[in-house]
Automatic annotation (TrEMBL):
<dbReference type="GO" id="GO:0016020">
    <property type="term" value="C:membrane"/>
</dbReference>
<dbReference type="InterPro" id="IPR016171">
    <property type="entry name" value="Vanillyl_alc_oxidase_C-sub2"/>
</dbReference>
<feature type="transmembrane region" description="Helical">
    <location>
        <begin position="60"/>
        <end position="84"/>
    </location>
</feature>
<keyword id="KW-0812">Transmembrane</keyword>
<keyword id="KW-1133">Transmembrane helix</keyword>
<dbReference type="Pfam" id="PF04030">
    <property type="entry name" value="ALO"/>
</dbReference>
<keyword id="KW-0560">Oxidoreductase</keyword>
<dbReference type="InterPro" id="IPR010031">
    <property type="entry name" value="FAD_lactone_oxidase-like"/>
</dbReference>
<dbReference type="GO" id="GO:0003885">
    <property type="term" value="F:D-arabinono-1,4-lactone oxidase activity"/>
</dbReference>
<dbReference type="InterPro" id="IPR007173">
    <property type="entry name" value="ALO_C"/>
</dbReference>
<keyword id="KW-0472">Membrane</keyword>
<protein>
    <submittedName>
        <fullName>GGLO oxidase</fullName>
    </submittedName>
</protein>
<feature type="domain" description="D-arabinono-1,4-lactone oxidase C-terminal">
    <location>
        <begin position="3"/>
        <end position="240"/>
    </location>
</feature>
Length: 242
């Protein structure tokens, strides 16, 4: 993990779409480069590894781990070596490359922080898990990067950003303890100036968004003019704007 974080600029320069997957409770990282190419289509996908192992076996083992949480550490390390430790190359049209199997039901959080905070924030998350041995985290923590923009309500507004996505699966639909993990993660993200992904879970309210987004008051003013009766609001958006 430290090798990737210490050479992050080199990875970002090497690939147009660089991201990496960290496997909690370990130092293991899977590096992913995604770039345009003129090579003919090719694929290393395998039903056995991608579904029999990477889906069905994983779901069964994570279900077992709901009774024995300490198994999660072993599962993360084992599946890294089974599915992510070897070098593979896939060539296809962009939508096939950028989309990937999300497996089964899951709880997800995804915040964008200033790109220069990547190393500090991820190491804090790692330390938090190490200091709370009863708290387990499923793999992977996906770390990806995006250029800054000028969209008022964009998590990347006026800054190059790192998205740090955490996940807790729900094997066979079963809920898993995740609240403590969620709160610690959110605390780290807020500490480093994070902004949550709009389509994923978070506990932020209007006051939080006022601090996070310089353009928030302007956006609210326009929204109220265009929708004075609140026709397009729902329970989630009411929490955001009021």
């Amino acid at each position: 993990l430290l090798q990737v974080l210490d050479h992050l600029d080199d990875h970002l320069k090497r690939s147009q779409y660089f991201r990496f997957l960290w496997f909690p409770h370990s130092e293991n990282v899977s590096i992913i480069y995604q770039d345009p190419t003129s090579k003919p289509p090719s694929s290393s996908t395998s039903w056995f590894w991608d579904y029999a192992v990477g889906y069905y076996l994983l779901e069964f083992l994570l279900w077992i781990s709901t009774f024995v949480p300490s198994l999660v550490c072993w599962i993360n390390r084992c599946f890294f070596w089974l599915l992510f430790s070897s070098r593979v190359e896939n060539v296809a049209t962009s939508y096939k490359i950028f989309n990937y199997e999300c497996r089964f039901k899951q709880h997800v959080q995804d915040w964008a922080i200033p790109i220069e905070k990547t190393k500090e924030a991820l190491l804090e998350l790692k330390a938090a898990l190490e200091n709370n041995p009863k708290m387990v985290a499923h793999y992977p923590v996906e770390v990806r990067f995006a250029r800054g923009d000028e969209v008022w309500m964009s998590p990347c507004f006026q800054r190059d950003s790192c998205y740090m996505n955490i996940i807790m699966y729900r094997p066979y639909g079963k809920n898993v303890p995740h609240l403590n993990y969620w709160l610690i993660y959110e605390g780290i993200m807020k500490k480093h100036g994070g902004r949550p992904h709009w389509a994923k879970a978070h506990s932020c309210t209007q006051k939080d968004f006022e601090r996070m987004y310089p353009g928030f008051p302007k956006f609210c003013s326009i929204r109220e003019k265009l929708d004075p009766m609140g026709m397009f609001l729902n329970a989630y958006l009411e929490k955001v704007f009021y």
